[in-house]
Amino acid sequence: MRTLHLGKGKLVDTDSLIGVFDLDITSQSHLTRHFLRESERAGLVVNAAEDIPKSFVVCREGEKNIVYLSQMATATLLKRAEADWLLE
Fold first, then answer.
1. What pLDDT score does 85 carry?
2. Fewer CB atoms inside 10 Å of the end CB: C or N, the chain?
3. In a 3-state reduction of DSSP, which class is residue 72?
4. How high does pLDDT run on average in the chain?
5. Strand partners, 35
6. Is 2 exposed, middle or buried (0-12, 13-18, 19+ CB in 10 A)?
7. pLDDT computed for residue 81 by the predictor
8. What number of other Cβ atoms are within 10 A of residue 53's Cβ?
9. 8-state DSSP, 62
10. At 13, which helix (H) or strand (E)?
11. Beta bridge partners of residue 83, listed in sequence order
């Protein structure tokens, strides 16, 4: 099982990964803001950021999509994921 470290010790299985999104860019869209707001209301948001979040990661866990807030930039998360894949 490959994992991706999001911050604050939170690891997610890369097989469950749906997408990694830049919070500054995507939050300009009312659709993204609505998605994040509704996810938070449903209790599906996990804060894995010790500081202001820079990105959010959506993972499929069971029948639900879980949103993880991360202080890591999307480029950093991509590099971490690629490094893990190269080690296999």
1. 55
2. C
3. coil
4. 91
5. none
6. middle
7. 80
8. 19
9. T
10. strand 10-13
11. none
Angle at 74 between CA 73 and CA 80, to 5 degrees: 95
Tokens at 21, concatenated = 């999104």
Report how far residue 47's alpha carbon sits from residue 36's, in angstroms, rounded to the nearest whole number.
Answer: 12
- 3-class SS of residue 7: strand
β-bridge partners, 21: 56
DSSP state of 73: -
Residue carrying the six token digits 């509704």: 38
Q: Take residue 48 and report the two structure tokens written for it.
A: 């894995």
7 backbone φψ class: left, alpha, beta (φ>0; ψ -120 to 50): left
pLDDT of residue 84: 62
| Alpha carbons 65 and 18: distance in angstroms, whole number | 9
**How far apart, in whole angstroms, are the C-alpha atoms of residue 84 and residue 88?**
7
Two structure tokens written together for 25 = 């860019």
pTM assigned to the model = 0.91
